Known about the structure:
Elements: H1 2-35, H2 38-66, H3 68-88, H4 93-121, H5 127-151, H6 158-164, H7 166-178, H8 184-189, H9 193-203, H10 209-222, H11 237-252, H12 255-268, H13 274-298, H14 304-325, H15 330-349, H16 352-362, H17 366-398, H18 400-421, H19 430-436, H20 445-456
The structure holds beta-D-glucopyranose.
Amino acid sequence: MAVVRIAILAGLGGLLFGYDTGVISGVGGRIETVFDIGDMGLEIVVSSVLGGAIIGALVTGWIAGRIGRRGAVLLAALLFGIGAIASAFAPTVEFLVVARVVVGFGIGLTSVAVPMYISEASPPARRGALVSLYQFAITIGILVATLVDEAFNDYADGWRWDLGLAFAAAAILAIGMFNAPESPRYLVQKGRIDNARGVLAMLLPAGEVDGTLEDIRRQISVESEGHWRDLFAPALKAMLIVGVVMAAVQQFTGINTVIYYDTTIFERAGIADSSDAIWAAVAVGAVNVLATLIAIRYVDRLGRKPLLIYGLIGMAVSLGALGVAFLFDGDIASTLSVISLMAYVICFAFSLGPIVWVLISEIYPQQVRGPAMSLATTVNWLSNLVVALTFLSLLDALGESMTFWLYAAICVLSIVFVVTKVPETKGKSLEEIAADTGSIGGASPSAGEAGAAEARA
Length: 457
Ligand code: BGC
């Protein structure tokens, strides 16, 4: 199936995202020693990737509107490749920081362009699963990074291999995307109707091609040209809030405290041997990968909202239990902390992990999808940075239990938000979603729905 191939290929961008954000936690100590930079220097090296990602995400809407979705993914692959090689051969720490910013820029680009590309190319009935493949790749990337860190742990120069290995995935992504088609919706937007029809014919059953094309054309013709200022049109307000809040919720419910600091948490919970803590971290990574399969299977059957609600309830309960674990010592503390942390990761992996990317890629109308996704994703990276920078200080100021209960409270508030504000988008075409949420301003909802219905008839 062409569309599955395309989703897997573009999903490789997720592999690089996961690998490059995950790998640094294991190599930090060695970089600190080699360049003799101290804790602050190391913090700069580590956060340079997040800084690059924030800028990358912010400009992707503009880039993907100029060189296309496929072009943006290709550019990301190029940056990943250059950044990986430059990191591996970095002669000085300043050079390394610049190389990590370049890699971060690639991650930022990927995090907007890949879900956008997959979403615009997918048939409605499978869009949730196909965009979730991207999250699946992120989780594989994080797991592989943990294993590679372990493998090169004993070599002084092993960190160069750790950082350089991402080049291989970047090369595969670049070669694959070179032969992939452009997003049909982007082609329509640029007036390249025949090309769009050709791509839709590859992606959809023959009977749906003309109706879908007509539907996309009709919506684009009723929308204004998309600019950043259009984001603040009254008709878009509700969905803009949904995207931005859900992007922030994905981070402020604490996932990266676990992904970046799981060994620290396990050591604090009394798992004495640090190699046990590392293997517990590998187990967390593996559970994260496997539980994402639940979302791939159910996101288009049960819908986005039920998975989000079940996941958030599970996250709140397991964070509550994790907080309780820290009230005890010895075996009770370590057993309860491992079980609750695993449960938390499972619940994130089938809900907020994939579904935030799915939602952000489908709730905006075509003309503003670029800037709107850029804004939401930039908020996601900024929130990621804030959580990463504050977690250890929160632990010291509030203690472990209160810190995890704080994240649990954010989960509870998020449930209320999801129930009251997030639309269900399962099975609808992107054009129907825009019409249903009222975000295409003057467009008549029935026009979009009629077109999509015809297409399916
Ligand atoms: C988040 C990342 C996180 C990862 C964990 C992604 O969806 O955006 O911040 O590290 O999931 O699996």
